[in-house]
Amino acid sequence: MTSRAIELVAKAIAGSPKVVVLTGAGISQESGVPTFRGNDGLWKNFRAEELATPQAFEKDPVLVWKWYDWRRGLIKPLKPNAGHRALVDLERKVEDFTLVTQNVDGLHKVAGSRNPVEIHGTIWRLRCVECSQTFENRDVPIKILPKCESCGGLLRPDVVWFGESLDERMLSKVYGCLQRAQVMLIVGTSGVVQPAASFGIVAKRGGAFVAELNRSRTPQSSLFDLSIQGKAGEVLPELARRVK
Ligand code: OAD
What we know:
Rossmann fold; 2 domains; 9 strands; six-stranded parallel sheet; single chain; SIR2/SIRT2 'Small Domain'; binds 2'-O-acetyl adenosine-5-diphosphoribose; about 240 residues; about 40% helix
């Protein structure tokens, strides 16, 4: 079944110049990055509302920074896996290819994806809470508390926290791609966090063939044209290989 399903997606991609791929934590799982809601999930050990919110940062920036410093230290030595690399390969074969990721680990960029749209931001960029200037920073450990080089304001991770909105311009670009997409592939996301959870539905309404790839079924599996159960690091290379 999986092999036939991969063939179907490969054929759809091969005949379509406009392809969108959405990724979630599942694609980085095989690199060793913990997912959010699995058994090894990050949110199982930490209460998100205590750490990943603007209120938490206002109340205790040292604690929030310690948590991010720990995550940055965990992720920094990790390498992209075969799933990330297969998407780079796919990008080369498709005329109009957009990669949208919810991941903040930066592994798509390390793999060589040209311009992944990081809708939840990245832990490798810091943003000043006063002047909004951003700075690339891969220091591990980071100096707590980091301060803005321009205005001396407090720097925060440039990621989207609970209760915050996504960047409007980025989002409207993504919706444009979804509406024009002929094929959409959704990889390794539980599909429960908005607005990304609705991207597949938007693409489907716009007429795209939408396929999901996940280690297990998700609450959205039945909404799409195809649901492939398997590991991203195994299925994606096979898919990329079959797209001529
Ligand atoms: P989740 O942890 O919610 O879901 C990860 C999904 O990946 C699950 O459905 C797993 O079954 C699947 N999965 C795990 N390993 C896999 C593998 N090797 N191959 C394929 N699938 C695999 O992560 P997300 O859906 O990405 O937001 O979470 C969405 C957002 O919730 C995150 O971006 C984060 C969090 O709150 C923010 O921090 C703003």
